[in-house]
Specification:
Layout lengths: L6 E4 L2 E4 L10 H5 L2 E9 L2 E3 L1 H14 L8 H14 L6 E8 L16 E8 L5 H6 L1 E5 L20 H12 L4 E5 L5 E4 L3 E6 L2 E4 L10 H12 L3 E4 L4 H6 L2 E6 L3 E8 L2 E2 L7 H13 L6 E3 L2
Parallel strand pairs: 7-8, 7-14, 11-12
Antiparallel strand pairs: 1-2, 1-6, 3-4, 3-5, 4-16, 5-6, 8-9, 10-11, 10-13, 13-14, 14-15
Helix pairs in contact: 6-8
Bound molecules: 3-[O-phosphonopyridoxyl]--amino-benzoic acid (PXG).
């Protein structure tokens, strides 16, 4: 049976996917001038939707972009979009707000109206095996953009820094890349925050190194603390990574996923670690918990 085309929200209207288009003069396209969020729903629970919307509006504030909807209107539009597409179980949501249509100069004053896009789609489950057995990664030469530049603290449409890193991972035939900051400390993955476990202490870099304040990162910290682990936010060196007992990534798409090899060094015994596995198990329970999300129905 052929599925009906998905409906995409653009500026308050719904268009079938094949007709959902924006202008080539849109500054989101021309200059990466905009912000976004990637969100997931599990069994009809839009996990941490309010937190994602809060972060979207924070990103907007940082780049002086006035989103023409209130947070409540945005939340309702996400839920409505899921309903229109009959996505009542597991889904993926992409919110994009760009500076809007302007001219061929980069001056944002030429863009009178931001563009708001909500894509709700099925979630493509790929790399399940990798997730279970753990990922391989390299530390890449691509440095995270510094905090006084296009820092990933702002979830902007500028992802070339992450894409360059991902290309290096592809070239090295590993799953992911880990970026250092300019000082040489471990920052994050291409679209994931990073953690290590050493002697049962869970460590993650502070976001002041230029990493995104990941929502999954925060959830992982809360789960680890609830399980009685000490969680420390401090600088991690490449050697700390190599010598850790366990390492894992966190992210909306990645969830909590073990990292078992970095630059050809086995992490711990090269298998997903026990602390990581406990966190993964709790995470998979939490994502369906309506106390941690917004129901579609
Ligand atoms: N760092 C960066 C640079 C990210 O882009 C994370 C960390 C993890 O943050 P959350 O809040 O998701 O725990 C991200 C997240 C995608 C996609 O489709 C990317 C992200 C999230 C969802 C989907 O590429 N980035």
């Amino acid at each position: 049976m052929k599925k009906e085309e998905l409906l995409i929200y653009i500026d308050g209207e719904y268009f079938p996917k094949s007709e959902a288009k924006i202008s080539v003069y849109n500054h989101g396209f021309l200059y990466g001038d905009g912000i976004f969020e990637g969100i997931r729903a599990y069994s009809g629970n839009v996990f941490k939707l309010r937190e994602h919307i809060d972060r979207l509006y924070s990103s907007a504030k940082a780049i002086m972009l006035d989103i023409p909807l209130t947070k409540d209107q945005m939340l309702n539009a996400v839920v409505e979009s899921l309903k229109k597409n009959g996505l009542y179980e597991d889904s993926y949501i992409r919110l994009v707000v760009s500076r809007g249509e302007g001219d061929l100069g980069l001056d944002p004053r030429k863009c009178p109206k931001p563009t708001v896009i909500i894509i709700t789609d099925e979630i493509k489950l790929h790399g399940r095996e990798a997730k279970e057995n753990g990922l391989t990664a390299i530390i890449t030469w691509v440095k995270r953009d510094p905090v006084d530049a296009t820092s990933h603290e702002i979830k902007s449409l500028n992802y070339l820094n992450s894409i360059l890193a991902k290309l290096e991972a592809n070239n090295a035939q590993v799953d992911e890349a880990i970026c250092l900051n300019k000082e040489g400390f471990v920052c994050e993955g291409v679209a994931e925050n990073i953690f290590i476990v050493s002697n049962d202490v869970v460590v993650t870099p502070p976001t002041s190194t230029g990493a995104l304040r990941g929502i999954t990162r925060q959830v992982a910290i809360e789960i680890a603390e609830a399980l009685g682990y000490v969680v420390v936010k401090k600088d991690i060196t490449p050697a700390d990574l190599f010598l850790a007992d366990e390492a894992f990534f966190t992210g909306t798409a990645a969830e909590i996923v073990p990292v078992v090899e970095i630059n050809k060094r086995k992490i711990g015994d090269g298998k997903p670690g026990s602390v990581t596995k406990r966190l993964m198990e709790k995470y998979h329970q939490l994502v369906k918990d309506p106390d941690h999300g917004v129901p579609v129905r």
